[in-house]
Amino acid sequence: MGKNVTIRHYWPTQTAVAPTDAGNFGLIAQEQVAYKKKRPCKGMRKRYKKLMSHLEAEIEANPVSFDFNMITLPPSLQVNEKQREKLRDRMEQYQHQVRIGEVRWKL
User: Is-contact 39 75, C-beta < 8 A?
Assistant: First the structure.
């Protein structure tokens, strides 16, 4: 058998077996697949929060005539359909809460 080698640049870590006589690499027990967190950078998160607070202010000013389709979204949301739909759902839910008077006050 070969010598155990730990690959440190992946998360979660993988443990590999050094090459055998045939020159192949094998993984011990279960192979854990490396992944990368899919979290936007800090600047993008701040811009998203700022956009949400701006949209919430518009909804509070005039909840009846607010139309999400008439808003010019940043390029990052124009491209990402999943995020755009998530924002649309949040804003429609917030608009409904404002209309019926169930808005939770922010501290």
Answer: no
